Every structure is written in C-alpha cells, then in structure tokens.
Fold these 4 entries.
Entry 1:
Amino acid sequence: MVTLFMTVGTGRPDPRTGRASIAHGLAYSVACHRPGEVVFFGSDQSAATVRGIAEEYQEMTGEVLPPFNSVVLPDVDDLAACIEVMDAAVKGVAGRKAIDYTSGTKSMTAAAVIVAALHQVPLSLVEARRGVDGIGISGTEHLREQRLSPAYTRVLREQVGADALE
C-alpha cells in the first residue's frame, strides 16, 4: 500500500456544497491513489477542508476515508519551514509513497515538489475544467502525474559532465 502525502489549503466555499472548493478534487486524488494512509500537510485552518475531503470521499466512493494524519505546518508561507516538516514526514514513512500538490500555498506546493524530487517520490495533481467562478467542475477531474525525470537527468549531466552522457 502507498502512503499519500497531500498539501491542503483552505480554499473558498463552494456555493454548491458549502465545503471548501478544493475538497472534491482532493477526494478524487485519494480515490485514484487508493492509499493505505493519507498524510495531510496544512495550517491549523485546514481542518475544515480535511473534513470536507472525508465527506466528498464517502459520497464519491461509498467508503470511509483511509486512516489519516494531519501535520500542521508552522508557517505555510515559509518555504524552508515547509520543506523541513514535509521532508521529516516523508523520511519517517517506510514503503511506497506518493505526493499530491493540488492545493495549498505556493510555498507548500513548492516544498512538496522539492521533497518529491529529493526522495524520488511520484508526484501528481488533480486538474479539472473550471467554471466561470474559477472552481473546478465536479466530474471533469483527472489525475495528472508529473515527471521529474528531466530534473534528475539535468542533475546527473551536471555531476558527470554532459559529454559523458552523450
């Protein structure tokens, strides 16, 4: 089983559900990954979004959200602090891992990408067609896996010299 790490912002209320507008997309990601455990990274204000994710997930799948932990980031706009907390959490889990950076502050999502690259953890986000209100339209979501291999190749080329790889 995979442990899914997810950045979670607060979103804005979706007038259709009253939940954070991002809850459906994040629940969709959990449904796609089918993790054994989920670790949510967010602020102390993200708890309502996590409740919304659990509700959306249950409506979507008919199942209860897998076991989860919420890790509160001390400053969601401090890139170094986000990296430190996320890195420790990812290191502390054995086995298969995945990181979803669909939601959160710019610093949170940048930190998630950096930690995924450091640990070579698969990285993804949920895309959806957006309505006129800017909110993703339920039913149009799809999981987009991100390839970090171009970055790994670049690092290797710089380490051994570009000539050695050609």
Entry 2:
Amino acid sequence: MNLKQIPLGPLQANCYLLFNEKKECVIFDPGFDGERLIEYMKQEGFKPIAVLLTHAHFDHIGAVEEVRNHWGIPVYIHELEKDWLMDPSLNGSARYPMEPISGRPADHLFTKEEKVEIGPFTLELLETPGHSPGSLSYYIKEMGSVFSGDALFSGGIGRTDLPGGDHATLIESIHQKLFTLPDDTVVFPGHGLSTTIETEKTSNPYLV
C-alpha cells in the first residue's frame, strides 16, 4: 500500500489517499478544496472506493459532498457524530465567517472498535475521543501506521475547548489506545507532519 498526504483548506487539514498498486484508494478527511482534490485524483488515475472520516469538524469534512457526489462512494463516520455532517452548529462551520457546511448523512456508521474491510483495505478502528466525542483513529497493521485525526500530533495534541471536547478523555485515549501500538508505528495526524509513537511517548510536552 501507498500513501499520499494532501493538506487542504485554510487550516491545512491533512487529507490522505491510501492506495494499492491498482490505484484503488480510500480518502481520509477530504477537508476543503474539493475541485482541486478531484482534479488531482483524476489526473493521477485514482479509483476511490470510500471516504473515511476521523471526525466531523468542518476543516475535515468541507469537501465530503463534492467527493461523494463525483464518484458515488460511501462515507463512513462514528455514530456519535452522525448528525455533524448536516449541522453547521455541530461541525463548527457556523462559528466562522464562511459558508456553513451542511450535507447528507453518512452512508455507514461505526459503532464500536473492530477490524473492518473496505475493498482491499483492512483497518482497525480505535475510538480516541477527547478532541471530539466520535473521534476515530485508523490503524493499519501491515503498514505499521495509524491515522490519528486531531487526537495526536507531532509534538502536540488536539484542542479540547470545542463542544464535546474533554482534555482528560483525550489524554486517556492517547495513552490507552495510541500509546499501546508498537513504538515504531508511524502516526499520520490531521494537521502537520508525521511522527512515531515512540517519539511522542518520549518527547511530546503534553504527554511526558
């Protein structure tokens, strides 16, 4: 499997394309710039099969409708945030001077931690709330990688002052879910550069 990281939108939220040798791919967090993202994927010959969301804050979902409509692919999200795609007051877009983000419900709701198969991809779901109540991290054992959304960053953690956020819950999520992964696991966060579990265990000022 291969990976392409594409920062999108004014907050440069990381969209990730996870793809195989056939260019079949899943799209993590298509945040903004839907037209540019679609054009790039068409030029590169990607064949998307699903949109996977780590959570439903506006900077991670702004291009969901454009991507879903263009390819006719399903969207997956945690059930605790099932209403956020439709509600600007929940996804946060109503609090900023921008066009409110409101789309259709997700096609599939994750309800528990489990191993899921989406096309040729196998992912393990880790519930990592704290930044938001339905935050998910996606662990891919064969790649030694985890997509942590806005739970864990290189040298940082997600903010917890938004509705549904809780600092103690986030710290517990990181220690009990992410820090139990192998130390050499590569962390692909929702913003910024990648890191490793070992690096964050030993040097993240919020966690050591």
Entry 3:
Amino acid sequence: MADHEDSTSPPVESMMEKISEKIHGHDSSSSDSDNEKSSPSAFKAKVYRIFGREKPVHKVLGGGKPADVVLWRNKKISAGVLGGATAVWILFELLEYHLLTLVCHCSILALAILFLWSNATTFINKAPPHIPEVHIPEDPVLQFASALRIEINRGFALLRNIASGKDLKKFLSVC
C-alpha cells in the first residue's frame, strides 16, 4: 500500500513544478535550449497561456463580437444578453408561458400602442405614425396553394394504397 503511494507522488510533483514554472516565468532545469532563451516573445506567449495552449481563448471562440460577449469584454451587451436569456427562461420555464401565447400578446400590445399613438397625436399636435400598407401578391400564393394541393393528393393516394391491403410489407412498416 505504501509502495503505491510513493509511485504516484513523483509525477504529481513534477506536474506541479511544471505548472509553477510556467506561471512564474523562470525555469530551473538545465535542459533549456538556446532557441527559447533567444526568442523572448515565444517564451512570453507560453507563459501567459494556461496549460500551454497554442491560441488565445478569444480566437478559439471565433473572435469578433460573439467572442467579446462570451468573454465579457463589452459588459453592457453581455449583461443584456444574460438578462434577456434569464427573462426568456423565467417566462417559459418558471411561469410556463407558451411561445404562441407570447407572440399573440406581443402583437396585441403593439397594435394597442399604435392605436393609442395615432389617436394621441391629434391632442399633442404631432404627425401620426407612418404605417405602411402591406399587399400580398396573388400569383405566389396561388402557386403555393397548388403545390400544397398536389402534395396532399399524393399523400392521400399513398394512404389509400396502404389501406387497400395490396402490399402487406408496406402496411406492416407503416404500423
């Protein structure tokens, strides 16, 4: 039992020595090469990266704004993302709110705000809000309806063939 404890302690000590050497920036071993001593930038790059990583964390996360948000470099945006995610979690998990209900309530609220805003502009002598007219073209809607009708008819024909009992293998695979 004592032999087992002695056999595991030297690797642990050597690992701790390596980590402390990386952190403190000095190396007491005599096996250093001349290249590491001559290029201090390569030595500094390894000193400041934990566990001897090749790339910084910002680059590993893809760089740019998403990495800045994850690493909290822009604190306002990161706090906003965290607050928004927390609000969504509270709505959907704790309050058991549903997405369709949320979308409907938001659209009702937006409609009520626009209605009140357009009516309040007459009392405060401001221009009413510009609400654009929306038109759906007829041709794409008809093409979509026609394609949908064709696919539904194909599905009904397939179900009819399966239910007629002509192909037992297909019937059993559907069941």
Entry 4:
Amino acid sequence: MENNVLEFECVGLNNGGKFPIENTGRGKDISPEFIIQNLSTRAVTLMITLEDLSHPIKGFTHWIIWNIPARDRITKAIPSGKSISSLQGAVQGIGYGFHCYAGPKPPKGKSHKYCFTVYVLDCKLDLSPFSFKRKVLSKANRHIIQEGKIYGYFE
C-alpha cells in the first residue's frame, strides 16, 4: 500500500521553526529549496502553496505554483512569471505573489504562522495562470495522490 503522506524538506526551515530571512519579504524574498523524500511512482506533477494562517483572511495565499514535473528536488529562487521555463512550464497563479513567490512579511511586531503544502498529482492541470488557489485546488482535488505540510513562523 502506498503512503499518501508526502515527506519533504524545506531547506532552512524546520517544521515549526522560524523562516530564514532570505525567504521572507524582509530579506531576498526568494522561494526555498524543497527536497522530496517519498515521491509516489504515480506522480506526474507537483503543486506548492504558501499560506498565512494568522492573516485575518483565512488561509491567505502568498504563493501557488502547479505543473512542476514530479522530481525529488525543486531548486530555490524560482523566478517570477506565469510560466517557468526552468521547470518545464510550471505555472504560477494569483496570490499575494502575483505570478511569483511572496514570502512572509507580517506587520512589524506581529508573529504569523505560515504553511507550505506540497501536493503530488497524477496529471497536469489545464488552468489559466490567472487562477486563484480555490479554483486550482478544486480542479486538482480528484488528482491529489500525496500531500505534505511544513509550518513556520515569522515576525
């Protein structure tokens, strides 16, 4: 039986730890590197979301990217853009990061909790880069074969 809980590492961020400054809006604001450890043999693509769980808007989306070809490593500093050629056409949608990664940047003096979720899908998604998380997740829902989360804090 296949394990549907995805194990992954977000380089520089221990689960429940503090975000590295370079991955925040107060640093270089670059996406971290991800190392996937138990990827399903049925995996076709990966999708990643970054949500601010402390934001007044529940599950406020900082970043969403999908159609990353299934692989065990996603390099850091994914560039801005609707379609990422270095990731064979992976698509970045609409969030706080408009077609780009937008790291944590809560109001000064406030600590916010964030969550990276990596989804493993058995297909590619045919969606506009102008799609929001709700639409992407709705389309992906029946195709998610693994999922994993890492939480972090930033002040």
